[in-house]
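Bug report (template v2)

What were you trying to do?
Predict the complex of my protein with phosphoenolpyruvate.

What happened?
Run completed; filing so the output is reviewed.

Input:
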Amino acid sequence: MIVILKPEANQTAVDHLIHNFEEMGLSTHYSQGAHTTLIGLIGDTSKIDMDIISANEIVASVKRISEPYKATNRKFHPNDTIIEINGKKFGEGFFNVIAGPCSIESEEQLISIAKDVKKSGASFLRGGAFKPRTSPYAFQGLQNEGLKLLSQAKKETGLPIVTEIMNLNHIDLFNDVDVIQVGARNMQNFEMLKELGQCDKPILLKRGLSNTIEEWLMSAEYIMAGGNNNIILCERGIRTFETMTRNTLDISAIPLLKKISHLPVIVDPSHATGIPWLVKPLAKAAVVAGADGVMIEVHNNPAKALCDGPQSLTPIEFDHVMKIIDSMVATELKKMNR
Ligand code: PEP
Ligand code: MN
């Protein structure tokens, strides 16, 4: 981190500032040039609040030259993180497909979709019991009843289950859940992230609607700071000026994250586009870009779905996408999880 000083900064105030930094356990490097005087900070600056330093009357500006994310940073953890869930691995070249309805609607709906996606080769079943809806008048999910149906589907198919948490008060209902999803709208719910850091379940952390990759990694840091290192990042599209798709899939986020972080990364082409026929090309793009998996919404009757029907694939369409993913995964020298 570099602290650039104002030209009029008096030496006593500068000495005082340097002393403060050293008291924080940092080494300092003072450099007085013809036009600019600065203090270089050496050491772990991740806990430094740049705003507090900027507010000092002798400081002109503060610049970070190292990344604020540490636990998620590949620099300090060169090998891929491998997350094992019910015998299935994320990372180490494995490719996982998470599939299922946007929301759990009934026993008949969920069990039939679960059996279909399993037959097509999905490795995890998804389904929302608590739904984050823009309108308070829209279907909010079957809640506790939905979680029970998800457990039943897990028992009947053997597929591990993924579902979203919306409120920490519900955490005790998630005992049978294999992967807890933090949705885009809660990516920066810091109190929730801190609590999930204390739990021993893997977390699927979706990217926020308008969040940068760095902010996303900082949210993962919150979870890791509590001791939970089992995080899967999910790129689900971001808001841009484009209106033809529901969001814009940031495909470059995948190779970028794989380079700067050791965490597994998956892609959700359903929420990224909102258009079912775009799911196939974007799932293909995800495989080639190096993703560790995809999450796809599947519904047995999309026209009647209570949530996100228009973007859902039918089981037959999903089966077709799975066949394509299967052959591509083999070419990319990855292993399909079954
Ligand atoms: C979901 O996966 O059901 C969902 C609500 O997604 P997102 O948080 O990405 O909008
Ligand atoms: Mn959805």
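What did the reviewer find?
Residues 102, 128, 132, 183-185, 206, 236, 271 surround phosphoenolpyruvate (ligand 1) (CB under 6 Å). The radius of gyration is 23 Å.
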